[in-house]
């Protein structure tokens, strides 16, 4: 069977290769994982089980259960100072991934240009291709701690773009953008009339400071869709639940696709999410503190090894510079020391020469992995 | 959370962590970690460090019971005085004053159920203030000191994911 051209054009994910290499052996410590090592808070899991016991297995409203949307509205208002109408401006999706896909299909016309931060999560560019848009890569640099700048947008020619996908805290770099960093980006988007899809799935995992959203800047709310969800902070990746926040026309357009392609997000997960928002703040805070301690630990170990690594303050990744070619380093490390991590170039050209190191792993494994990386670096520099 | 409080949290999870690693995790210097631990100890906030043992995996015989105690008090003898007396027995591994239908909840450990029975009936019950004991022998332990007692890791995540 011959796949359609738009599928043929999209190369397979570079992560796949490392997954296959790592799966071949059973002594691997993995720092290549893009999800928490914790399980969802028990109260949330229990609510999911209870909903099944009560027979809650039917579809929900297309936009998601109203109770959930109301709680999401309350949560984002309390946490980030947003104000979104649960009836018109919130869409519950099957993970942020579905949200982004639906938004691209709802907002991008064939031939529209979509500016993408590089390096970034692997699914944006294929998403743009599937939607018929033209990706425009905007490289970020380590000297700027992988933050997006006005100048970078300008240099890349994003003034001509129709839409920008922003993703901070960033996967794979762990970079964050605070109010000061976002301001010029917001200005650029207003000046050049760009819509913004802001993937803020790691917002709650911002360390030693508060997360800022571009949607809270003047003139940005009406041109921004914010994406968040339960996967990372609530450790609910497998429950596949996210949400999109935005002006009613945008959310309405997305819902028009979502209602045909997905009908509604998983019902069981929605029940878990209601409980998560209601009663799991303490667990989220506890997981966040554990991540933060590991973050400091890993950064300090790289520093001691003499591997340059900017101080990533978000998500659960650090992004050290790698001696030599990143792919060769990652393959060699896996082969000789049994430590899996992901080469930075998988996430875009601007990630070349870096490594994505996930610290979503228990401290004892993390310690062992860092020891092995150290011995690999020492032996390969000899 | 201030770094000292955070240090306490880390110690509760792993009291054997090396000073250097504690420093890395909390952002304190090694000297600060050592000083903070010394303070926690001298202030009596940290009273000791123990291993969490799954006795069922050892060759040793080991028995444990939770014992409810009711006591009677008078003008000279309060809960503290009774507790001091009972806590001195080495078999008693924890002793707490609790709300509800009885006064103290006591954990007793010994080499056998028989020894525990003997200890409760011959040593604790005769204490003049003790009016009643109810002994619950522990049949199996699933979680101890915040740690679930089971085999290995149940990390079933994909080893590499986006």
Please specify the SSE layout and strand pairing:
The complex is a heterodimer of chains A (382) and B (162).
Chain A lengths: L4 H4 L6 H9 L5 E2 L11 H12 L12 H15 L9 E4 L1 H13 L5 E6 L5 H7 L3 E6 L10 H6 L7 E4 L12 H13 L3 E5 L24 E6 L12 E4 L2 H14 L5 H13 L1 H25 L11 E2 L7 H12 L1 E2 L1 E2 L11 E4 L4 H19 L1
Parallel strand pairs in A: 1-10, 3-4, 3-5, 5-6, 6-7
Antiparallel strand pairs in A: 2-8, 7-8, 9-12, 11-12
Helix pairs in contact in A: 3-10, 4-10, 5-6, 5-9, 11-13
Chain B lengths: L2 H11 L5 H8 L3 H13 L20 E9 L7 H9 L4 E6 L6 E7 L2 H12 L5 E8 L5 E2 L2 E2 L14
Antiparallel strand pairs in B: 1-3, 1-4, 2-3, 5-6
What Rg of chain A is obtained from the alpha carbons, in whole angstroms?
A: 20 Å
* Number of extended strands of chain A: 12
What is the overall number of helices of chain B? 5
| Termini separation of chain B | 31 Å
- Order of helices and strands of chain B, N to C? HHHEHEEHEEE
Strand content of chain B: 15-25%
The residue-averaged pLDDT of chain B reads 94
> What's the average pLDDT of chain A?
96
Number of helices of chain A: 13
Strand order of the largest sheet of chain B: 2-3-1-4
In angstroms, what is the radius of gyration of chain B? Answer: 21 Å
Widest sheet: strand ordering of chain A: 2-8-7-6-5-3-4
Oligomeric status: heterodimer
Query: Residue ranges of chain B: pLDDT <50 for 5 or more in a row?
Result: none
Question: Which structural class fits the helix and strand makeup of chain A?
Answer: alpha/beta
**Helical residues, percent of chain A:** 40-55%
Care to count the β-strands of chain B? 6
Q: Could you estimate the helical fraction of the residues of chain B in percent?
A: 25-40%
Distance between the termini of chain A: 51 Å
- Based on CA inertia axes, which overall geometry of chain A fits? globular
């Amino acid at each position: 069977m011959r796949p359609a051209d738009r599928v043929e054009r999209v190369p397979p994910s570079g992560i796949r290769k490392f997954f296959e290499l790592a799966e071949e052996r059973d002594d691997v410590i993995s720092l290549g994982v893009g999800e928490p090592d914790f399980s969802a808070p028990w109260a949330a899991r229990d609510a999911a089980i209870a909903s099944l016991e009560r027979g809650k297995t039917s579809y929900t409203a297309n936009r998601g259960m109203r109770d959930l949307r109301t709680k999401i509205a309350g949560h984002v208002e309390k946490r980030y100072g947003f104000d979104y109408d649960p009836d018109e401006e919130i869409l519950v999706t099957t993970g942020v991934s579905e949200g982004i896909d639906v938004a691209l299909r709802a907002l991008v016309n064939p031939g529209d240009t979509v500016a993408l931060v590089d390096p970034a999560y692997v699914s944006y560019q294929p998403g743009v291709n599937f939607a018929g848009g033209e990706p425009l890569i905007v490289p970020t640099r380590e000297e700027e701690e992988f933050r997006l700048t006005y100048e970078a947008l300008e240099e890349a020619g994003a003034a001509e773009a129709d839409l920008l996908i922003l993703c901070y805290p960033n996967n794979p770099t762990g970079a964050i953008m605070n109010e000061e960093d976002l301001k010029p980006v917001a200005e650029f988007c207003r000046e050049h009339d760009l819509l913004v899809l802001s993937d803020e799935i790691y917002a709650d995992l911002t360390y030693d400071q508060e997360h800022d959203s571009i949607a809270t800047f003047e003139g940005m709310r009406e041109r921004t869709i914010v994406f968040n969800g339960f996967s990372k902070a609530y450790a609910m990746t497998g429950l596949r639940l996210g949400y999109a926040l935005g002006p009613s026309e945008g959310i309405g357009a997305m819902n028009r696709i979502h209602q045909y392609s997905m009908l509604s997000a998983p019902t069981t997960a929605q029940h878990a999410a209601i409980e998560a928002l209601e009663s799991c703040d303490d667990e989220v805070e506890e997981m966040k503190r554990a991540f933060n301690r590991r973050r400091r630990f890993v950064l300090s170990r790289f520093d001691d090894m003499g591997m340059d690594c900017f101080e990533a303050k978000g998500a659960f990744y650090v992004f050290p510079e790698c001696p030599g070619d990143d792919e060769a380093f990652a393959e060699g490390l896996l082969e000789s020391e049994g430590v899996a991590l992901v080469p930075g170039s998988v996430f875009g050209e601007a990630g070349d020469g870096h490594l994505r190191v996930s610290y979503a792993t228990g401290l004892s494994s993390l310690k062992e992995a860092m020891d092995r990386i150290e011995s690999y670096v020492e032996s390969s520099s000899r | 959370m201030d770094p000292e409080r955070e240090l306490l949290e880390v110690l509760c999870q792993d009291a054997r962590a090396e000073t250097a690693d504690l420093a890395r995790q909390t952002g304190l210097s090694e000297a600060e970690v050592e000083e903070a631990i010394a303070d926690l100890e001298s202030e009596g906030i940290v009273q000791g460090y123990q291993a969490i043992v799954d006795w069922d995996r050892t060759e040793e015989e080991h028995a444990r019971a939770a014992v409810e105690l009711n006591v009677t008090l008078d003008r000279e003898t309060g809960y503290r005085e009774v507790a001091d007396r009972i806590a001195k027995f080495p078999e008693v591994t924890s002793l707490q004053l609790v709300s509800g239908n009885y006064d103290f909840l006591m954990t007793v450990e010994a080499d056998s159920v028989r020894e525990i029975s003997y200890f409760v009936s011959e040593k604790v019950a005769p204490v003049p203030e003790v009016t009643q004991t109810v002994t619950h022998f522990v049949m199996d332990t699933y979680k101890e000191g915040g740690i679930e007692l089971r085999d290995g890791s149940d990390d079933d995540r994909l080893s590499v994911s986006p």
